[in-house]
Amino acid sequence: INDLDNVIRADRDHVWHHLTQHKPYETKDPRVMVEGKGMRLWDASGREHLDAVSGGVWTVNVGFGRESIGKAISDQVTRLNFFAQNVGSIPGAMFAEKLIERMPGLSRVYFVNSGSEANEKAFKMVRQIAHKRFGGKKHKILFRERDYHGSTIATMSAGGQPERNAQYGPYTPGFVQVPHCLEYRAQWDVENYGERAADAIEEVILREGADTVGALCLETVTAGGGVITPPKGYWERVQEICRKYDILLHLDEVVCGVGRTGTWFGYQQYGIQPDLVTMAKGVASGYAAIACLVTTEEVFNMFKDDASDPMSFFRDISTYGGCTAGPAAALENMRIIEDEGLLANTDAMGARLMDNLHALKDKHAAVGDVRGLGLFCGAELVADRVSKTPAGEAQVQAVIADCMAQGVIIGATARALPGLNNTLCLAPALIATADDIDAITDAIDGALTRVFG
Ligand code: PMP
């Protein structure tokens, strides 16, 4: 790239950026990222950054600049780049099998391109099952306060961050909210908080009528809504409730999936068995646009008999689900995680990151709570520890800007939402070293001192 000034001008004049909190044509520095290697990035001015958020939105799990993934994509797309998913492809079949080997109890992979789309497809399956088996009655989908499932209308209808959604209605009917399970902001004064929060789901099911509820859709760890790791006892009870009322458990692993939490999937740490799992970001670490919906043979069989029905989900399509670059990249991504021992590294570095965050909490009154699983961690900032009043947006943004000035990119949750945007969010690549982790928390330490005193 020779003329970076021209690139920056073209970007400013013509690109409508995502996730901007200011005027859309005024994206803040660095405007353009040019190159990445491992956990480091270089912007158009040549400045180096340490990336603590894996490409901004917790995606580049195996780090930047992986030549072997580039080669796997290039070899595949020059041999055969695409054919629709009514036939198979070599990388599609091989990746599906590798994935299923790591997801006991599940057996079918449906390829799409984004997390939103994977969730949409899951909702469509649930709706069609309701029609097939229950005369359309068991069609409602429960979602949880603070969870996020995507940016399309149906996934926003299942969105637990209402302020974000308020101006896009009307929404799709049949989505019903259940309470969040963040113990730090407890809604019940009880000892076994996890079970109580799960019982709140049962209360909603009984209120709505169990014969109207088809699925419960939850993020394994609520990511953008506050880095919420469910309390002890929650998942076991959730599973029990789903089985009791014949409700499908749909876990959104778009963030947790493919290594981020130190196991292949986040739910595997809780010993539960979902019926539907959606994944996206980490599937190919951002090297290709691939997302998956994975389900059981039992769900698959519900559709199998009427494959000839023109309305069957079997006739559904996602054009780019047939793009071979995705599974080619995903296969190599998985090989890297395995061969480099990145699950164990995530476990160890995640523990170190949590230790460091606890130390920051001991030192800074502004850190109200720290939470995390594997390398997905958060520090909730408060104006006051006793009242737990969330830190103001300006202060949270000042901490992020201070880190950026030190060369460390961190993020915060629910960026647009007052009251929910006060949790610093850290999701470094799974290759992070102890020095990287310490550099990230040292930067936050300095920023907290400067912003909060
Ligand atoms: N689910 C979760 C938990 C997410 O965090 C996201 C994206 N931030 C999505 C779904 C939507 O994924 P995508 O942006 O690929 O549509």
UniProtKB/TrEMBL annotation:
GO terms for biological process: L-arginine biosynthetic process. It comes from the Bacteria. GO terms for molecular function: pyridoxal phosphate binding; transaminase activity. It comes from Roseibium polysiphoniae. CDD domains: OAT_like. This is Aminotransferase class III-fold pyridoxal phosphate-dependent enzyme. PANTHER family: AMINOTRANSFERASE (PTHR43094), AMINOTRANSFERASE CLASS-III (PTHR43094:SF1). Belongs to the class-III pyridoxal-phosphate-dependent aminotransferase family. Keywords: Amino-acid biosynthesis, Aminotransferase, Arginine biosynthesis, Pyridoxal phosphate, Transferase. Its cofactor is pyridoxal 5'-phosphate. Coiled coil: none annotated. InterPro entries: Aminotrans_3, Aminotrans_3_PPA_site, PyrdxlP-dep_Trfase, PyrdxlP-dep_Trfase_major, PyrdxlP-dep_Trfase_small. The lineage of its organism: Bacteria, Pseudomonadati, Pseudomonadota, Alphaproteobacteria, Hyphomicrobiales.
